[in-house]
Amino acid sequence: MYHTFKKVALTVVPRKTLFKNEVFIRSLFALHLKGKNHRCSLCKKNLKKFIKIPDGDILCPFCGSRSRTRRLYNFLLEISLLRGKILHFSPSRSLYRVFSKNADITYYSTDFQDEFIAKYNYNITKIPVENNYFDLIICYHILEHIEDDKAAMSELSRVLKKGGNCIIQTPFKVGSIYEDFSKTTKSERLKAFGQEDHVRVYSVQGLKERFLQNGFTEVEVKNFPKNDFYGLINETVLIAKK
Fold first, then answer.
1. How far apart are CA 44 and CA 21, in angstroms?
2. Cα 138 to Cα 92: distance, rounded to the nearest angstrom
3. What is the pLDDT along the chain (242 residues), one digit of tens a residue?
4. Which of 36, 59, 82 is the last residue in one of the domains?
5. Smaller CB count within 10 Å for the chain: N or C?
């Protein structure tokens, strides 16, 4: 039902209008999903159930947040990282709405290809700000799209303040990093990396080592367990410092 509703909305309502009124439109659909079985920690709604989407993730019908979005928000609150200047690459709309209204932070949302709602369009391999500028960088599901990821990591290190945090997540595999730049077509990349616009698949240890080789001095790997009540799946997140 949700997927039919979404398809109709995308067909009938102009994209900009849909994004501007997304919360209201979602609330109309989600009325029948109010309940006490679950809770979205991002929009604070109590739910009968989360919605499972085709890639296996679990969506909040009210705000559209994914499991990783809710997990990130919870994590940032728990360790008090929502402060100072924050750089957020390709932000989800649910987090963009929350962070852009937070008067306690200076929020820099950016998306290079204009696929997400964002104020800036920084190239991650050449970020146009001074050294040691940001207190926090959020880089979720970005680096697997970037051919020169080492240059990107060096830039993230350059613009991050000493003592700041860079929070990273990508798809992961067991073993070592797999990348093959001879694969350039959508079909080749889909078969090799699992998505048409991905250029590699990281392993947790491989990604950690690559960050340590490109400007960072410490990388912590955090594994989070599943939590059905809050609609959270098993996830791995890296926290890099310099």
1. 19
2. 11
3. 555 545 545 555 555 565 666 766 777 677 788 999 999 999 999 999 999 988 889 999 999 999 999 999 999 999 999 999 999 999 999 999 999 999 999 999 999 877 778 899 999 999 999 999 999 999 999 999 999 999 999 999 999 999 999 999 999 999 999 999 999 999 999 999 999 999 999 999 999 999 999 999 999 999 999 999 999 999 999 999 99
4. 59
5. N
* DSSP assigned state of 242: -
Both tokens assigned to 196: 């048409």
**What is the reported pTM?**
0.88
* Alpha-carbon separation of residue 53 from 58, 59, 173 (angstroms): 6, 7, 21
Answer yes or no: do 30 and 81 share one domain: no
Q: How far is CA 2 from CA 28, 84, 131, 142, in A?
A: 12, 37, 45, 27
| 39 and 156 co-located in one domain | no
For residues 140 and 89, the answer to whether their CB atoms sit within 8 Å is: yes
